[in-house]
Amino acid sequence: MPPTMTSPLSVSTAATPRATTTHLSIDGVSKRFGSFTALDNIALEIQEGEFVCFLGPSGCGKTTLLRTIAGLTRQSAGRLTQRGKDISMLPPQARDFGIVFQSYALFPNLTVFNNVAYGLRNRRVERARINDRVAELLALVNLTGSEAKYPAALSGGQQQRVALARALATEPGLLLLDEPLSALDARVRGHLRSQIKALQARLGVTTIMVTHDQEEALTMADRIVVMNHGVIEQVGTPAAIYHQPASAFVASFIGSMNFLEVTAQANRQALLGNTPCACLPHTIAVGQAAQLAIRPEAVALSLQARALKHQAGALNGEVVSIEFLGAFQRVTLRLPEDHQTLIADVPSRDSSKLSLYVGQLLAIHLPAEAARLYAAGSSQQ
Amino acid sequence: MMAESLIKAATKPSLESLIRLLVLLAGVALLVVGLLFPLVTMLLKSLQDRAGDFIGLANFAHYFQTPALVNSIANSLRVALMTTGVVVGLAFLCAYGITRTCMPGKRLFRMLAILPILAPSLLPAISLVYLFGNQGFLREVLAGQSIYGPIGIVMGMSFWIFPHALMLLTTALTNSDARLYEAAEALGTPKWRTFLTITLPGVRYGLISCLFVVFTLAITDFGVPKIIGGQFSVLATDVYRQVVGQQNFQMGAVVSVILLLPAVLSFIVDRWIQRRQVAQLSARAVPWQPTLSPLRDWVFALLCYAVAGAIVLVIGTAVYASLVQFWPYNLSITFEHYTFQGMADGGWGAWFNSLKLAFSVALVGTLVIFFNAWLIEKSEGFRPLRQGLHFMAMLPMAVPGMVLGLAYIFFFNQAGNPLNWLYGTMMLLVLNTLVHFYTVCHLTSVTALKQLDPEFEAVGASLKVPFWTTFYRVTLPVSLPAVLDISVYLFVNAMTTVSAVVFLYNSDTRLASVAVLHLDEAGYFASAAAMAVLIFLTSLVVKLLHAALTHVLLNNAQRWRQAT
Ligand SMILES: Nc1ncnc2c1ncn2[C@@H]1O[C@H](COP(=O)(O)OP(=O)(O)OP(=O)(O)O)[C@@H](O)[C@H]1O
Ligand SMILES: [Mg+2]
After folding, report:
1. Can you give the pTM of this predicted structure?
2. Cα end-to-end distance, chain A, whole Å
3. Nearest CA among A304, A334, A300 for reference residue A320
4. Does ligand 1 lie within 6 Å of residue A59's CB atom?
5. Architecture in CATH for domain A22-250
6. Major place of localization (chain B) (predicted)?
7. Which residues 173-232 of B are in CB contact (within 8 Å) with A?
8. What average pLDDT score do residues B510-529 get?
9. How far is the CA of A152 from the centre of ligand 1 (A)?
10. Cα of A163 from ligand 2 centre, angstroms
11. Average confidence (pLDDT) over A308-319
12. Structural domains in chain B plus CATH codes
């Protein structure tokens, strides 16, 4: 039973979280615009109290999926179930959600108070109750005292928080956020990110946020849904998405990643030119062209002589350029064999030991536990 | 609780979409009954004989074999083309003066130039008779030519069409890109070449659109040729003469169909141009600012003020003529003509009827048109219905007033029509006027609505607020300036129009503009002038109130409107 608006804004729903009851299940949802398929057979379960991010490049269908959940766009096929109730055919008015749009869509002619109270006024709630509730919500988003202001008089970050308060006013079971931070400058964004996350954790409201900013998704989400071309590429925790990308697309989309052209070999092996490299288990047929993906920070560099002796799978490479990026230095190397380039991030602490300079020949170690093999050509978006 | 919310969920949304559907259907019904049915009935009438039997194109054959009638086509084309030349030429120069020079007194000129819109088209015709007629004090200027005929028609039409052309061309000339001019200057291009290669191409769509609008207004106008045309007949007066004079409805329908053609053509061209014009000005264009050039500025100032002087002269003449005892023999001032002794039931009743009509149309029309535009623009679902309504909302622009009025007679005065009781009532006049001026209001509404955040409705829906609440709490207040523009446009047009309503009144619902016509026909020229002036003053007062109200509202809204 959804909480009524008269119940106090409490941690009640959050107090019993992760009982892993399903809040929303999306079942084979597709959406076509004419002959264009914006969503292709999407299946997803979202747990009660969870914070889920839809992440993907522009045009991949994130907004379309969010609007489908809201009922603002009608799916071409598939079923949506919210708390056990089939909502596939319900109009937005009959679904239980609050939404914050990228533009915020604050009503410009209404004060902050009236914007937040907009959904409450309709419920024939006593005036005093509404006042209390609005005060409570504005306190929640740190905007106490702005009741009488108009949206135009607020900064972008403040407008965003008013929109959030307005969406939360009716205590929806599901909060939908479409790129809520993308219109703000970087500093405000970082601050609001943690604020929203804390707020969500406190209220325990199931939340879906759309973003194309991977950092946002990685820092805020309990689980990330990576989308591309209208399909889900991977669903998982931020750590899983980062460390165990399920596809070359996910690997390339999140964080930076080296892709080396290799030939697959049996037994957790690949051939880079003529050098054998160890990697995680893979399913690519022996002799097939493949891509070996490894993160720059996983690449280990060392002075040549020592490394060549001790480590199997060691390569060497010539330093082409060095970028100073504060905490680490980004070294671009050219591998002698077929002139592939490789990027390595060297922590500033270690770089002094290497005394890096352009033209230097270094030994490269690609740790097997960080090297993944993907079929060739699959990282193209 | 659960069951209750389930029931709520099941009934409430369907109620909302049911209401949406019903309102959309009502909108469609309004235009079907108020526009399509009458037009179709009229087209059918043109193919029938007096007895109502189908006779194919025989009426048209008869029309083209009657020289007196066919002549009117040439006459209409002649005066319309001449008017178009005069109006567009003058309006272009004046618009150029306003937008591209630093001439002094632009604001005053614009205010004066807009005045003719507030008067019925009968007013300039009456004034011209006083100025250039047999007893006019400027008749020598015409060098023996009679004002009754093409000269008078062209002058009178030019007067009241001028503001329309000026507004269109001012808009077109305002959209300029300074970067193009700077580039031309840097290349040492002479001024006249800059004008030919940059200015003219830049306004070509606006200019073409203006040419067609002016031509259509001129060829379909009824008021001016009726008063000052004399023996010189044009299509619009033929419709009137056939129907009111000779009771020959079939021939009236035939002339109407012919009158419909240029209007439809112009409508199609205009739509085509609107579609092309969209992408013309890039978002990065820098508006061009004129620099001082005393000679040029004063030449344009003189020209503009000559035009403004002519406008003031025409209006002033009507006012003066309505006040003098007996032109030109007894020039003492009197208010006697404002008692309208030429009219059996007194003219103030007609004026009051006009006021009633104008207020009703302004109120009902604004609500209906804006709400329909909102449903078309801002709702999901019922797509074919919404598109159909939009299409029908565009049609009235292509239908001249005379044609619409006659079509109403045919449709609503049919014996078998269940809506027959409407004929001659104020309600029918309201419907007719609303439909007549629907398109411009619809387009204004759509433009205003397109500027709003597309997610307002979605937010309302997510907060479980019914769509009509979001409409009146947010959409309407935010669009208030446009809504006020629409209502004053409807008011002024309802006050001044004569062409459609001339067929539709009865003795209880006679309007002021029709009264001008009757007073003139009956030879009470001074009273006709007085009535025309009365209409003008009423529109002027409403327009001024509107300006004041808009000012106050915008000032109040400044609290929430972005300063940028
Ligand atoms: N109403 C529509 N009609 C036709 N195509 C549409 C419509 N809405 C979305 N699309 C298309 O569907 C695809 C997915 O759109 P969507 O807005 O969901 O992308 P997105 O992932 O939110 O991208 P962004 O990050 O740019 O917001 C796009 O290619 C878009 O062009
Ligand atoms: Mg999007």
Report:
1. 0.85
2. 42
3. A334
4. yes
5. 3-Layer(aba) Sandwich (3.40)
6. membrane
7. none
8. 91
9. 28
10. 17
11. 66
12. 15-43+344-559 (1.10.3720.10), 77-228+294-328 (1.10.3720.10)
